[in-house]
Amino acid sequence: MDGAVMDGEDFKDAMSRHAVSVEIVTVNTTEGPVGITVSAFVSVSVDPPIVLVCVDKITGSLDAMISADGYTVNFMPQGTEDTAMLFATRGADKFGSVEWSDPETPVAGPILAEAFQVFECETIQRTEMGDHWVLYGLVRRGTVGDAKSLLYVNRGFTELR
Ligand SMILES: Cc1cc2nc3c(=O)[nH]c(=O)nc-3n(C[C@H](O)[C@H](O)[C@H](O)COP(=O)(O)O)c2cc1C
């Protein structure tokens, strides 16, 4: 990547003003469930339904996320800040203190009871991009909920009015 690029701190400052919703992405491993809080989640395609999530290379859960055949996107509603922070905490016992269940799609990850809707995905492509990995997921099964998303902007959680 030749030529000038934006300063990293300025990039993070600008992105901090960009309001996003908060999801918890989970996978199953032979050693048990793994999950991280993400904001880097977007819709890529409708037909077929494809999404992507970006996983930081410094995340302890990176190997589990990349190795899994699929993942579940748990859409978190307002009022779940504590769970979002738990799943953003390195080394925490993330699944010991929340309610969860197995997905219907065998390759997907655990479903958190607090999620208001979920996408159960099969990972169809993994792309190394800068300091992140991008995991593309084909949505094998999804639910549609009725709640307001937990939002994150200006480096803090906020609520939709
Ligand atoms: C609001 C919020 C959004 C986050 N978004 C992402 C993200 O999109 N991708 C990512 O890799 N980490 C993201 N993180 C950080 C991870 O949640 C965190 O590094 C990870 O859960 C640490 O746990 P681990 O080291 O046990 O994997 C976010 C954290 C917070 C609080």
Explain what you see.
There is one protein chain. The chain is mainly beta and 161 residues long. The protein has a single domain (22-158), classed as Pnp Oxidase, Chain A (Roll), CATH 2.30.110.10. It is built from 3 helices and 12 strands, in the order αβββββαβαββββββ. It has a 7-stranded antiparallel sheet with strand order 3-2-6-9-10-5-4. Strands 1-11-12 form a 3-stranded antiparallel sheet, with no helix packed on it. It has a two-stranded antiparallel ribbon with strand order 7-8. A hairpin with a 2-residue loop joins β2 and β3 (32-38). The longest helix is centred in the first third of the chain and has 9 residues, at 8-16. The termini are far apart. It binds flavin mononucleotide (FMN). Residues 22, 36-40, 54-56, 59-61, 87-88, 90-91, 152 line the site of flavin mononucleotide.
Secondary structure layout plus pairing:
Elements: H1 8-16, E1 20-21, E2 23-29, E3 32-38, E4 41-45, E5 50-56, H2 62-67, E6 70-75, H3 81-86, E7 100-101, E8 111-112, E9 117-129, E10 132-142, E11 151-153, E12 156-158
Antiparallel strand pairs: 1-11, 2-3, 2-6, 4-5, 5-10, 6-9, 7-8, 9-10, 11-12
The structure holds flavin mononucleotide (FMN).
Flavin mononucleotide (FMN) binds next to strand 3 and strand 5.
